[in-house]
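User: Show me a protein chain along with its predicted structure.
Assistant: Here is one chain, sequence first, then structure tokens.
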Amino acid sequence: MADEQLNLSTLKPAQARKDRKRVGRGLGSGKGRYSGRGIKGQKSRAGSKKMPAGFEGGQMPLDMRAPKLRGNTSADAMPIGPFRTYSQPINLRDLDRVFADGDTVNIEAMVEKGLLKNTKTDVKVLGTGDLKKKLAVTAHSFSASAREKITAAGGSATALKEPKERKRKKVKTKTVAEEPEAQEAEAQPIEAEEPVAEAEAPAEEA
């Protein structure tokens, strides 16, 4: 370009242009007849490129099948399922580090000390770490080890929610009714039959 004289006849774009694909302009255009879509099927129809995300050809999509699958989706299966809840865990080592001996520990006090962001979530005290201070702890729930360590240090653990008893599933045991005669036959051991000695023939008289 530098050697040639710049005029209207020598103007060219910096990047070569590519002609767009013109479909449906006759068989001689190279994209006539079916316009590159094939003969039949969903992809040859208008609007086939506008299917929603997750479309599976008309069958039940995965996001609609998943809630119908088996799993822990009942209210008793917390914290799993649609009725799931969340409790903020607080360890004993954090209480021992932040609070002084004889303090009253509740949800508001935990927020003031920076252990919690707000009072909206339930708090469960866990037994990780050692507790060497006498504290009166009030929370929504306690683990068994945390309750033991708090009471062993001379403090008290008050739960705002009563622990729920887990429902045990009933296991059906199959009982086969056996006849008494069959039971007696099994109880008695089978004795081996002794071979019967053949009767000796009388000695012939001389």
